[in-house]
Amino acid sequence: MSLAGLKKQLNKANQSIREKIGGAEATKLDDDFLEMEKKIDTMDELSIELITKTKEYLQPNPASRARLAAQNQFSKIRGQARTTQYPQPEGTLGDVMIKYGRELSEGSVSSEYGEALGEMGETLKQMAEVKYNLDATVKQNYLDPLQQLHEKDIKEVLHHRKKLQGRRLDYDCKKRQKEKGSKISDDDLRNAMEKFEESKELAENGMYNLLESDVEQISQLQTLANSMLEYHQQSTELMEQLCSKLQSRVDDASSRPRSHHRPKKVTEDLLDHYNGTDSTDAPPAYASISAKERTTWYVETDETESGDLLVDTAAADSPTTQHQQPCCKALYDFEPENEGELGFQEGDLITLTNRIDENWFEGTVKGQSGFFPVNYVEVVVPLL
Asked: Tell me, what's the pLDDT at 206?
């Protein structure tokens, strides 16, 4: 900065202090201008709040949002362009229903409840896809324009206002100095005033144009409402179809005659064997099996009415290797939900390779690598 520019900045700072403390008179702007300034300040705060709250509406779980941000940051560190999607709660619940519904439906004992779970799980996963479509539409047609309004349009107006404030201070400083008899020429004072007027005109026109963009702003709001309406309509249609299918299953199950089941006694096969009756699933005679098999045969007798499981005591504990490299011990089971996460079981010893941030480690266990939450493990040997 040149000496003249430095002197100019000092004069403006001096003028500002005199106005705040010394009661120096400042050039007042008209009421319409001041009213527009308040409206622009409100729009600036509004755009920030709308962006934040809309994202929270689309992705309501703060823990999942934090995990998603960590995963995307982890992908950037590895140089991967792919971003992980937010786990929609409908999809997560649907996966659980499909998994256990399939397990209930497998085997010789069929389960209508398991099949119904599978149907509802599939519907919930379809709803999750509809929610992903809502996310994409709202981001493209509402959040992106709102972000541009905040980062470009409003920012430009605020820049003109800041420049106006500086030129106003420069003009008032020169006017005050001239009134006190300082060597300020009429040309300098006139140039300062012209620049002040120019900045006021730029700032006022920018604010006016921004405040008059109602059509554009309302159209974007309408797009948001239409996207939300379409999401709820599609979700309603899916749930109506599901409820109809479930009602049909209820009607079928109610009209079906109830079957009766007689539990088979544990000793029934043994009695058949002792009486000379062949049984394909009878346990081997105790005397004919090996010593190792004898320790694990489950037998119910008069003396052991509830049945005892004899455990082989010959099993030797495998030696453990003392880990000198950074590692941690799993306190709980962790099931990976997204790409890049490392799954493990309680008690597993995990080799630590990196710490992503305060909430995530990166490590290796059983030949698999990935990242996992810090609060699921206890550090045994810390990272250097």
From this structure: 95
According to DSSP, the β-strands at 327-330 and 308-309 are: unpaired
Average pLDDT score over residue span 214-220: 94
- What pLDDT, on the 0 to 100 scale, is given for residue 73? 74
Evaluate whether 227 touches 138 at the Cβ level (below 8 Å): yes
Per-residue tokens: 244: 């109809």
Q: Is the pTM of this model over 0.90?
A: no
Total domains in the chain come to 3
Average pLDDT over residues 361-370: 93
Instruction: Name the residue among 292, 141, 320, 289 with its Cα closest to residue 220.
Output: 141
Nearest partner of 36 among 195, 203, 193, judged by Cα: 203
Contact 360, 374 (CB under 8 A): yes
Same domain assignment for residues 156 and 217: yes
Q: Do 100 and 60 sit in the same domain of this protein?
A: yes
How many other CB atoms are there within 10 angstroms of residue 334's CB atom? 19
Which residue range is the domain that position 289 belongs to? 263-299
Question: Using CB atoms within 10 A of its CB, is residue 59 exposed (0-12), middle (13-18) or buried (19+)?
Answer: middle
- Residue 1 lies inside a defined structural domain of this protein: no
What distance in Å separates the CA atoms of residue 40 and residue 208, rounded to the nearest whole number? Answer: 9
Angle (deg, nearest 10), helices 112-138 and 214-255: 180
- Picking from 322, 384, 323, the residue whose alpha carbon sits closest to that of residue 354 is 384
Find the farthest-apart pair of alpha carbons in the chain and give their distance in angstroms, rounded: 131
230 and 363 assigned to the same domain? no
CB 168 within 8 A of CB 26: yes
Residues 178 and 285 occupy one common structural domain: no
The DSSP letter of residue 276 is T
| Residues 17-75: tens digit of each pLDDT | 766 666 667 788 999 999 999 999 999 999 999 999 999 999 888 887 777 777 777 77
pLDDT digits 0-9 by tens, 238-255: 999 999 999 999 988 887
One-letter identity of residue 311: V
Encode burial over 183-207: b for 16+ CB neighbours within 10 A, e otherwise: ebeeeeeeebbebbeebbebbbebb
Question: Rounded CA gap, 69 and 61, in Å?
Answer: 12
Same domain, yes or no: 336 and 217: no
